[in-house]
UniProtKB/TrEMBL annotation, chain A:
Region feature (Disordered): 147-182
GO biological process: small GTPase-mediated signal transduction; vesicle-mediated transport
Protein name: Rab proteins geranylgeranyltransferase
Any one GO MF annotation of this record: GDP-dissociation inhibitor activity
Extent of Acidic residues compositional bias: 149-165
Any one GO CC term of the record: cytosol
Provenance organism: Zalerion maritima
Record Pfam families: GDI (PF00996)
Family: Belongs to the Rab GDI family.
UniProtKB/TrEMBL annotation, chain B:
Gene3D superfamilies listed in its UniProt record: P-loop containing nucleotide triphosphate hydrolases
Family statement: Belongs to the small GTPase superfamily. Rab family.
GO biological process: protein transport; vesicle organization; vesicle-mediated transport
Source superkingdom: Eukaryota
Pfam family, one: Ras
Record field: compositional bias (Polar residues): 192-205
Primary location recorded for the protein, binned into one broad class: membrane
GO CC annotation: endosome; plasma membrane
Subcellular location: Cell membrane
Presence of the UniProt keyword Zinc in the record: no
Protein name: GTP-binding protein ypt5
Region annotation (Disordered) ranges: 180-211
Length: 538, 211
């Protein structure tokens, strides 16, 4: 390890979460001398995907519920509950390495700048992207009948359709169900689940949102920009509560009931314009083998290929500015007792990060069924989806005491094709903003989801689950001259592009004046693959 | 130079073309850096390629993934091993300890990589021993016995003079399942992912067409 301390580094990066890894990628052709360390023995930091064995160790290290300690750590309150072979079906987990569970999985909309940067930096070719398929909304058992009755009333003015009758018949079964959210105009057009009058309103809204930013549209929404989206949909587009539920679910925001018209329109537009960008039938993608952690590994490899030095299992213990007057470099003490000198230290959220303390509660479950019905292609020629999104809107999650949980819960269900679990099983990721009762509500949502997807004679059982809390923030990085600290990630299940501007700020800081150079284009690199013998045609 | 072609087999009438991912492992001093004779330094390439013609109609292309120095502090990522069809583990025949290190790489491969991975053990720096036989620290018989026991292909090579290097790649190529090929989407029945290829329609990311 002596070698690390021998010279002055241009940048020391601590942590291999997505932000730091994207910075490593951005600097991979800069010629800067870079040391990239991570206190963990794996890549990805809070975005990592872990085997069950790694997860055991991780959960033990993040089990603290002590406010003093847990209040500052990114992860806390974690515990594992196993039900391996103990259920009715006696189904069992596979070996620990057959699993790769993501700590903070996020889907990536095809319009995301993240994908554009992975393409322009040539890193994309080492990641296997797969399609995110349908978006569903959960319909609790108790209100299924009520909704059917309501619809019957509306259907009075419709030309009665046979499908409508069948639909209604199904609804009357006293079982919770999942309704696919029609999220494109074609979808809305062809669906039989929405009565015609509502369809017209919904179509009008979808047409509006595609180019809501156009000058002539601004009068419709700008006066209401800071009001809740739900109110806007109700007053301007006369959407009924069911359709408002669909739209709020499609925002994929954990704070959906409070999301403003301004933010809401932007994310709905992102959803609609992402559809079909890289092929028919999907609006978002997910990296195989564990999501963002995979991108982190590929980005770090690009930096390693560019000459960066990688040390896992080594963190930053502290920093010291040796001569404050000179202030040109900082001494960084690594957990391996080595002290290295660097011009810039970039790190992830740590102990001294001031946040508003907002947390997100998560539950990750391995279930004993492939849940095939959630992963069907609905558009001809579409790739088979590997991720399905299920939204529980505010108040739709039954709680044990009979009251209902007053926050949305967002769920992504991953098939074994993601490489996160063996064939025949699937992984369900549930999340909600932390509050009293959140963990019970997540549990209840999981049972309801399994009940809603259960087919005749086949019950899906939860074989393993891990619950935990994660510190989230919509804050900005802290720039203290020689150290630059990223805030925790936002509470989002779809990747938020805002985070990329933080990475770019760190890059600009590392590059100094050379960012002004016209030759230097951010994240745009030439191919460096396949230097070899096959230039000569055969 | 065209970008990487579609994975898997392709070819006309009676020709076969197969592409595989090969990972190259070994301590930094064993000379694996020059293992591919076309390259001067580890730095700068995501991977290299080596093409072997097995016969008139069969061409095998190796996508050779270097560790990019990430092995130095035990920082190799799972994505490095993922879907690797074959591996070359290099040791230095003039350094006894390097064989022990190679053995631990073999264990690591058996832990991290596909069960069906083909592993070749390469005792490098044969050129040094040819000049000064007393420099040899690992006997051919010992290494061969270990390779046999662990089910590995075995060659003594000189990356410097290219001695046996082509034979090594050819031997690996002969072991590979040429009928169900491809470095990434290899297993039969596995579903195809999504292409973010800049050349596909509707993308706003530019780039020259490499078709």
């Amino acid at each position: 390890m002596e070698a690390l301390s021998e010279s002055t580094w241009d940048v020391v990066i601590c942590g291999t979460g997505l932000q730091q890894s994207m910075l490593a990628l951005a600097l991979s052709r800069s010629g800067k001398k870079i040391l990239h360390v991570d206190p963990n023995k794996y890549y990805g930091g809070p975005d990592a995907a872990l085997s069950l064995q790694e997860l055991e160790g991780w959960a033990a290290a993040h089990s603290s519920s002590d406010e003093q300690q847990a209040g500052q750590a990114v992860f806390s309150n974690s515990r594992i509950i196993r039900n391996d072979g103990a259920g009715k079906t006696k189904k069992k987990l596979s070996f620990p390495r057959a699993y790769s569970l993501a700590l903070s999985p996020q889907i990536i909309y095809t319009r995301s700048e993240l994908l554009a940067q992975l393409v322009s930096s040539k890193a994309f070719s080492q990641v296997e992207f797969q399609a995110v398929g349908s978006f569903y909304i959960f319909r609790p058992a108790s209100t299924a009948a009520a909704a059917a009755a309501e619809e019957e009333e509306e259907e009075g003015e419709e030309v009665g359709s046979e499908e409508g009758q069948q639909e209604q018949g199904q609804r009357q079964r006293q079982k919770p169900s999942l309704a696919r959210i029609p999220s494109t105009r074609e979808d809305v057009f062809s669906t039989t689940a929405i009565p015609s009058r509502s369809k017209r309103h919904l179509m009008k809204f979808l047409k509006f949102v595609i180019d809501y930013e156009a000058e002539e549209q601004s009068g419709t929404w700008k006066p209401n920009a800071d009001e809740p989206l739900a109110e806007f949909l109700r007053s301007q587009f006369k959407l009924n509560e069911e359709l408002i539920g669909y739209i709020l679910a499609l925002t994929l925001r954990l704070d959906a009931p409070n999301v403003s018209t301004r933010e809401g329109l932007a994310v709905i537009r992102r959803h609609l314009t992402s559809m079909g960008m890289f092929g028919p039938g999907f609006a978002a993608v997910y990296p195989k083998w564990g999501g963002m952690g995979e991108i982190a590994q590929v980005a770090c490899r690009a930096q390693a290929v560019g000459g960066g030095v990688y040390v896992l299992g080594t963190g930053v213990r502290g920093t010291k500015v040796p001569n404050a007057a000179k202030y040109e470099e900082v001494e960084v003490e690594l957990s391996s007792d080595t002290v290295v000198k660097t011009r810039l230290l970039v790190q992830g959220a740590g102990d001294n990060m001031a946040t508003d303390g907002q947390k997100m509660s998560r539950l990750v479950a391995i279930v004993s069924s492939p849940l095939d019905s959630l992963f069907e292609t609905v558009v001809e020629g579409a790739p088979l989806p590997v991720v399905a999104v299920v939204a529980f809107t505010q108040g739709s999650v039954p709680s044990p005491e009979g009251s209902s949980f007053e926050q949305p819960i967002l769920t992504t269900v991953h098939s074994s094709d993601t490489g996160e679990c063996p064939a025949g099983q699937s992984v369900i990721y549930l999340s909600t903003l932390s509050c009293p009762g959140a963990s019970e509500a997540l549990d209840s949502a999981l049972s309801s989801l399994l009940e809603a997807t259960a087919e005749e004679g086949e019950g899906a059982e939860c074989l393993f689950k891990v619950v935990y809390e994660q510190l989230v923030s919509s804050g900005t990085p802290i720039d203290e001259g020689r150290t630059f600290t990223f805030p925790p990630s936002p509470a989002a299940i779809a990747y938020e592009d805002d985070v990329l501007s933080q990475v770019r700020r760190a890059w600009e800081k590392a590059m100094g004046a050379s960012t002004k150079d016209e030759e230097v284009e951010y994240m745009v690199f030439a191919d460096r693959e396949a230097i070899g013998d096959d230039d000569v045609g055969s | 130079m065209a970008s990487r072609g579609p994975p898997g087999a392709r070819g006309g009438m009676n020709t076969r073309f197969a592409q595989f991912k090969l990972v190259l492992l070994g301590e930094s001093a064993v000379g694996k850096d020059q293992f591919d004779s076309y390259r001067e330094s580890t730095i700068g390439a995501a991977f290299l390629t080596q093409t072997i013609s097995l016969d008139e109609n069969t061409t095998v292309k190796f996508e050779i993934w270097d560790t990019a120095g990430q092995e130095r502090y035990k920082s190799l990522a799972p994505m490095y091993y993922r879907n690797a069809n074959c591996a070359v583990v290099v040791y230095d025949i003039t350094q006894a300890s390097s064989l022990d290190k190679a053995k631990s790489w073999v264990k690591e491969l058996q832990r991290q990589a596909n069960e069906s991975i083909i592993i070749a053990l390469a005792g490098n720096k044969l050129d040094l021993v040819s000049e000064q036989p007393d420099k040899r620290a690992v006997s051919t018989a010992d290494a061969e016995a270990y390779a046999k026991e662990a089910g590995l292909l075995f060659f003594e090579t000189s990356a410097k003079t290219a001695e046996n290097v082509r034979d090594l790649f050819t031997a690996i190529a002969r072991r590979l399942p040429l009928d169900q090929v491809g470095p990434r989407h290899s297993r039969p029945g596995q579903r195809q992912g999504v292409s973010l290829n800049p050349e596909s329609p509707n993308t706003n990311v530019g780039g020259p067409c490499a078709c």
